[in-house]
Amino acid sequence: MKIDIAERLSSWGVSQIDPGKSLNLIERYIDSFVDTNSAYYKNTYSQNVQGVYLWDTLKADYKLCKLQGISFKDVSKSVYFFWEDVVPCLRYDLDIAHIYNSEIATLLKHIPSLPSDLYIFDDTYSWTFIRTHFEFNEIGDNCKIVDPLKIIA
User: Fold this and answer.
1) Residue 81 is inside which H or E element, if any?
2) Buried b or exposed e, range 2-29, using 16+ CB within 10 angstroms
3) What residues are paired with 118 via a beta bridge?
4) What confidence tens digit (pLDDT) does each residue in 98-153 have?
5) Is residue 99 within 8 Å of 26, Cβ to Cβ?
6) Higher-confidence residue: 104 or 52?
7) What is the pLDDT of residue 153?
8) Total Cβ atoms within 10 A of residue 57
């Protein structure tokens, strides 16, 4: 049985951004955080190859962490979030053409029940928090944060 993510998000008070604005937000996100000049991006990601992710092409340094134990500075802050084009979990009906808007507190409350490869950022484009499906090391870190001092308490 497929789960309708848009319906679930709406029941939590999460807003869906219209497609035109979503496209602009994603393009600005890529401009801000993704190394589009890298060979990986040009030769692999932009070729729409299955199993490649934006989080493999970050242009800024990042910190690895686990979702558990993360404490955000301002949980009332409004953030945007979206999923990768290639969503690994086929049991979800996911409208990948949209970006969503929510308070961090709402998103964190429900994040365990949402698909991985989730990108979170705000309108400053100065930080991003990415929850991946992949464990990067032996202690189980599966998140990347660009500029954690701006958002992590």
Assistant:
1) strand 78-83
2) eeebeeebeeeebeebeeeebeebbeeb
3) 83, 131
4) 789 999 999 888 888 888 889 999 999 999 999 998 888 888 888 898 987 777 76
5) yes
6) 104
7) 64
8) 20
Secondary structure of residue 55 in the 3-state scheme? helix
The length of the chain, given as a count of residues: 153
- CB-CB contact of 15 with 99 (8 Å): no
Q: How many CB atoms lie within 10 A of CB 89?
A: 13
Query: What tokens does 145 get?
Result: 């944060």
With beta carbons less than 8 A apart as the criterion, state whether 64 and 70 touch. Answer: no
Number of continuous H segments (helices) and E segments (strands) in the chain: 4, 9
Cα(79)–Cα(70) distance, integer angstroms = 16
